Amino acid sequence: MNQITKTLSLYIDGLKTPLFRKKLFFTLGILILFRLIVHIPVPGVNLALLRQFFAQNQLLSLLDIFSGGTLANFSIAALGLNPYINASVMMQLLALVVPQIEALQKEGEYGRAKINQYTRIATIPFAIINAFGMFAILRSQHIITTFSPLTLAAMVASMLAGTMIMIFFGELINLYGVGNGISMLIFAGIISRLPVGFIQTMSVADFSNPQTTLNLITFVAMALVLIAAIVFVEEAVLRVPINYAKRGQSTYLPIKVNTAGVMPIIFAVSLATIPSLIGQFLSKVGNPAIAGFAT
């Protein structure tokens, strides 16, 4: 709790600085643009059937929460930042086996810039493959009723453009805003679903029943404890002692306990959805929609 109070006090003091306020307002402006893009739909999709399909699949609903509702709306940002995250993880894994990439990681700012450039390039094929897979799944569920090569090309290009725009927004936040741009966009997408969920809960809750009130209070308490625990782990550091024999002094080297941030969680959620998507796709192999798509 002391660490949370210290962090909040630092942000409050930072609001008194003109440069910090400028960065904060710039970040808020980018997040507003991001939420506007979410509501630009891809043509040729039956949104009513799409929302029903997502409501029946818990894994896809969870993935939709992480994407900020872009999947259920099937906007041009429907793929979210998943292709970029997959490309980032691929580059980190390649650094373990490719000496050239490992050497770039040791070259400071220049090496990081080159790796970021390669990551953006690798995002393009990931996004295209994901867009084709999304089209095939929606086609098998009769959510996309019309098919033509032009429609397919327009859909793939729109979803690819949406992903690249989101990456551009994230880099703008890194340069001129506050915090990590990719993490800020993911966070904005998640919390954007909170008002909708809160209104839905309030509309169906029966507060005349004491058990309902107790359940709601318990849920809020657990959420607050979870947030405090996440902040505690995120801010925690391992202090490695360092002793200077000649100077007779001692200090410590702070190493963050959670160096990977939210990347492993997002990547794990993406992997968790793969078996469900493959199973649904294979279950529709005998469907005439798939046969029509294959031909």
Structure description:
- The protein has about 300 residues and is mainly alpha-helical.
- The chain folds into 2 domains: about 15-205 and about 265-295, SecY subunit domain (Preprotein translocase SecY subunit, Orthogonal Bundle); about 210-260, no CATH class.
- It has 14 helices and 2 strands; from the N terminus they run ααααααααααααββαα.
- It has helices at about 1-15, 20-40, 45-55, 60-65, 70-75, 80-95, 100-105, 110-140, 150-175, 180-190, 195-205, 210-235, 265-285, 290-295; strands at about 235-245, 250-255.
- The protein has a two-stranded antiparallel sheet.
- Helix 6 (about 80-95) packs across helix 7 (about 100-105).
- The N and C termini lie far apart (about 60 Å).
- Mean pLDDT is about 75; it is low at about 290-295.
What's a concise summary of this model?
This protein is mainly α and 295 residues long.
List keywords for this structure.
single chain, mainly alpha, disordered C terminus, two-stranded antiparallel sheet, 295 residues, 2 domains, Preprotein translocase SecY subunit
Radius of gyration: 23 Å
| Secondary-structure arrangement, i.e. CATH architecture of the largest domain | Orthogonal Bundle
Q: Stretches where pLDDT falls below 50 for ≥5 residues?
A: 288-295
Strand content: 5-15%
In the CATH hierarchy, what is the class of the largest domain? Answer: Mainly Alpha
Q: What is the domain total for the residues?
A: 2
Count the DSSP helices: 14
Could you say which overall geometry the principal axes of the C-alpha atoms support?
globular
Share of helix, binned: over 70%
Give the helices and strands as they follow along the chain: HHHHHHHHHHHHEEHH
- Tell me the span between the first and last alpha carbons: 61 Å
Query: What composes the largest sheet?
Result: 2 strands, antiparallel
